[in-house]
Write a structure and sequence with these properties.
148 residues, alpha+beta, Arc Repressor Mutant, subunit A, 4-stranded mixed sheet, 7 helices, 4 strands, 58% helix
Length: 148
C-alpha cells in the first residue's frame, strides 16, 4: 500500500475515533494526560503509551500497553490492544458498554483471575479478548499474544 493510502487510512481512523468513538476517546485523553510522563509514540493512527504496571488498555484513539516482558510480547500486546481500538471503531460508544466492563471484570476480578489460573483458561478465551486478537491480527498482520 502506498504512503498516501496509509495517511488517508490514519486520517479516517482518527476522525471516526473522535466522532463515533468520542466517549472512549475522551476517557483515553484523560488517562493519557494522567500518563503524560510515560513514553508515547504513534501506532497505526493511535497514540501508544508504554506504561509500567499495566497489561494493556485501549480507549478510542489511545492505547496503553505495559512495558514488561520481551519486545515480542510487548509488540503482541500492542497488536491486541489495537484490536480493541478497531472494536471501538465498529461499536462506537457502545464499546464502553459491550467491551470495557466485561474486559475489566475478566482481567481484574479475583474470581475470574482464580478461575483462569485453576482451570488453565487463557485470558484471551473471553469473547471480547478473542475478538480483539482476531481484529488486531487481521488489520496489522502481526502476532497477537496467543501467537507469541
Amino acid at each position: 500500500m502506498t504512503d498516501t493510502n496509509w495517511k488517508w487510512r490514519y486520517v479516517g481512523y482518527v476522525l471516526v475515533q473522535c466522532t463515533w468513538g468520542i466517549l472512549q476517546t475522551i476517557c483515553g485523553l484523560v488517562y493519557f494526560l494522567i500518563s503524560i510522563r510515560f513514553p508515547h509514540s504513534f501506532y497505526h493512527g493511535a497514540i501508544l503509551t508504554r506504561r509500567s504496571g499495566i497489561g494493556g488498555v485501549s480507549l478510542g484513539l489511545f492505547i496503553f500497553a505495559g512495558d514488561r516482558g520481551s519486545e515480542e510480547k510487548q509488540a503482541a500486546v500492542a497488536v491486541h490492544e489495537y484490536g480493541h481500538s478497531i472494536q471501538s471503531l465498529l461499536l462506537g460508544s457502545l464499546y464502553m458498554l459491550l467491551i470495557v466492563p466485561e474486559s475489566l471484570l475478566w482481567c481484574g476480578l479475583p474470581y475470574f483471575v482464580r478461575l483462569r489460573r485453576e482451570k488453565n483458561i487463557s485470558y484471551y478465551a473471553l469473547y471480547t479478548e478473542a475478538w480483539a486478537n482476531c481484529l488486531g491480527k487481521a488489520v496489522l498482520h502481526e502476532a497477537v499474544p496467543e501467537d507469541s
